[in-house]
Amino acid sequence: MEQRRIMANNPAFQQLSPERQELIRERLREWNAKSPQEKEAIRQREEIFQGLTPEQKQDARNIFPQWRGLTPPRRQAVMVAFRHLRDLPPDQRRAFLDSQRVREQFSPHERDILEGINRLLSNSRPGPPNDPEQ
Question: What range defines the domain where residue 68 resides?
């Protein structure tokens, strides 16, 4: 495979520890196993992340592990709320976060995660309509 040949001929790669080389190979195998749609979603997230300020990037680094720490059903619920929040005009996001529905549906910790996401979205425009298959 072309990727293996490039790694084998790359002096910088060859200077890495065997453990680091194996980690890179594993990540490459994982990437190659992803569908085109999964790869595109990752590319889009990376593009968004690169557009963040250093402070927003740090917020994102703090928020993501908290979100990952939720149970899968709660992660999904927060993701649905995030998509809704993202699609709202900035001036309507606060009302959504302060709504009775959000207070009833989400724990204080989950609301903190949504607040962090709102800070990341603070200067952004609404996103594209939700894909019903997501």
Answer: 53-134
